[in-house]
Amino acid sequence: MPLLSIRDLRVEYRTSRGTVAAIPEFSLDIEAGESFGLVGESGCGKSTLILAIMGYMGRNGAITRGQILFEGQDLVRAGAEELRRIRGGRIAIVYQEPATALNPSMTIGAQLVEVPLAHGMSSMVEARRQAAHVLADVHLPDPDSVMRRYPHQLSGGQKQRVVIAMALLANPALLLLDEPTTGLDVTVEATVLDLLNELRAKYGTALFYISHNLGVIAQVCERIGVMYAGKLVEDAPAAGLFRTPRHPYTRGLLASLPRSGADKRGAPLLPIPGVVPAAGRAPASCGFLSRCGHAAAGVCDAAVVPLLLAGPGHLVRCARWADLPEMAAPSPVARADAVAATDEIVMEAHDLTRVYPVGRRQLLANDRLTLAARRGHVLAIVGESGSGKSTFAKVLAGLDTATGGSLSVLGKEVAARPARRRAAALVAAVQMVFQNPDGTLNPSHPVGWPLARALHKFGIARDRRAAEARVSALLDMVRLPVSLRHALPRQLSGGQKQRIAIARAFAGNPELLIADEPVSALDVSVQAAVINLLLRIQEEHRTTLVFISHDLGLVRYLADEVVVMYLGQVMEAGPVSALFEPPYHPYTEALLSAAPVPDPQIRTTRIRLEGEIPSPLNVPPGCRFATRCPRKFGRICDDTPPPLREAAAGHLIHCHIPIEELRRVPPVFATTGPAPAG
Q1: What's the CA gap between 511 and 108, in Å, rounded?
Q2: What CATH number has the domain bearing residue 132?
Q3: Inside any domain, residue 299
Q4: Within a domain: residue 651?
Q5: Of 50, 67, 49, 93, whose CA–CA distance to 205 is shortest?
Q6: N or C of the chain: less Cβ packing under 10 Å?
Q7: Environment class of residue 294 by beta-carbon count within 10 Å: exposed (0-12), middle (13-18) or buried (19+)?
Q8: Quick one: pLDDT band at residue 420, thresholds 50, 70, 90?
Q9: pTM for this structure?
C-alpha cells in the first residue's frame, strides 16, 4: 500500500460567482521514503492540493469527491481529533515564508518544545533535548544559543532551517514542502536542499515538494508530476521527464527555461502563450486545449482524456502524445547584430563607497566599487543578500547617495547627487524596475495612471491627447491590450503588473535601465516572456541594462558582462563566458555550485559554504570571503587584502591564490549522460 494515495479527488470552493472546482479530478500515489515533486504555474492547484491533504480548506472549501488515504486511513472522513493527531505527527508541512510559521514573541526553543509536548511524546526536559538534537541535525551551530533567540534574531536561511526542524520533531512519515526555498539566496537554498536529502536518508521521511522552480525539483526529487488546471497531466521519473517530456505543457515549461550553456544569441526562450484558466473554466476534455500548438479538432476536444502509459513509469494526459514530434531546440536568433552594442561607456564607478552610520560605528555597504557598463550591453550583478547589490542600484538611480568615490552616468558625475538634484533629462535616462511591481503601482488608481504621470513628470506629453497616445504606445510595446489602462492593479496577474512596471520605466526613453530581481517571483513561462520583452526593447532602443539577480542560470543566458559582489566589494568581474569556466574566484565557484540546474543529466560539484556573511559593521581586515572560503590560501587571507589579478583580457579576480592554480580547479558543471531532448 502506498504511504499516500489520492484517488479521484475533487475540491470545490463557494464563491460569489457560485461553486467552482479548484481541483476537478486528481489521483496520485506516493511511496514511503519517496521524494516526489509537483510543478506547474501559479493557479494550477498545487497549494490547494497541499491544503486538502492537511484538511485546511477554510469555511468555503470542501472535498466533494474522492479519497486521501494516508497509511491506509481516509483523511477525508477522519474526525477532528484524528486529524489533529496526524497533523504535525505523521504529516508535517513547511511553508514558503518561515516567518509566518514562527511566533515573534516566543523564543525558538519555546516554540520547538511545543511539538513533542503537544503530541504527548516526552517531558519538558526530554522535549528540550530533542529540540536541540534536531537543530544540530539541520546544521544550525550552537543549538542551545539558537533556542534562546527570537525569530527576528535569525537570518532567513536560519529561520527556514528552524521550521524544517520543527516539522521533523515528531518524526513524520510525510513532509509536505510548499515552495520552501523561494526568496532564499542560492547558497542558502542549496544548503536547505542538501539538508532535505540528508534528512530524508536519515529519517526515511517521504518528501512531497511543490514548486514552480524546475531546477530545484530536478535536484531534490526522484519522480516529478506536472499539474495543470487542477489535474495531473504528466507523471514520470525525473530523468525521463527532462529527457523525453511527453505532454505539450511540460514541453512548454522546459522551453521557457534557459538551457545549460545557452545564451540569448543562440537559444530564444519560448514562453507558453495564454494563461492558466480560472478555476472551473478549463474544458472537460483537455484543460490545455486553448494554449496548445498541437491540438487537433475532433481528438483533443472530443472527450475526457485519461492518464495514458507513455513508457515505464511514465504517465501522460494527452490524446496525441505519440503523434508529437521530438522536442527540438529552438531556432537561433540573430540578436548579436540587432543589439548594435558599442564600446561607449554609459556608466562608470570608480572606488564608489557607501557608508551608513550606526551609532558610533559604520556599516560599510559598498566599498571602493569599480565597474562599468557599455551602451547596449547587459551588465549583471550577482551575490548573496547583504553583498551590496541593491545599495549600488539605489545610488545609481539616485534613491541614495555615495559617501566616497565617483559615479559617472552619461558623462555626468552623480555619486553625491540624489535624484531630486539631478536634471529631469538625467532622471528620465536612468530608470529602475523593482522585484515587486506592486511597490510601483497605486492600488487605488488604474494602471494607466503611473504611465501618464511619468510622461507628465518628464515633460514628454504635455496635453491629454498626446499622453493617451503615448500610454497606448507603451502598452503596445510591452504587449498588453490598450483596454488594460483602465484596470486596477488587483485585476492584473503578476506578469501583467511587471509589464506595466517596465512600461513605466520606459516612459522617459531611458538610456540605462536598472532591473533589480525583476522576474524572481514569476512563473517560468511569465519569466521567459518578460525576459524576451526586456531584450526586444533593449535591442530597439539600444538601452544599457544593469541586471541584478541571484539566478545564475538566467544571468548566464542574459548577460554580456558579470560582476560578482561579496560584503560590499567586487570579487570577480569579466565577460559572462569567462565567469562560468575556470579560473573562478572561490566565491564565484561556490555560487555556481549552489545554482539549481533544471537538468538531472548535469552533475554539479557541490561546495557548501559554512557560516553566515560577516556583519558589514565588522568586516574582515583581509579578504572579505576568508571566513567562509573553502580554498583559503593561508594566514595572508585573514590579514591582507587580496591583489587584483587579471586572468584574461577584461577578466579580473581579487584573490591571493595564483591564477594558474585557479585554472586547475575542476569545472563546476559536468554532463553525466545523454543530453535531454528539451
Answers
A1: 49
A2: 3.40.50.300
A3: yes
A4: yes
A5: 93
A6: N
A7: middle
A8: very high
A9: 0.87
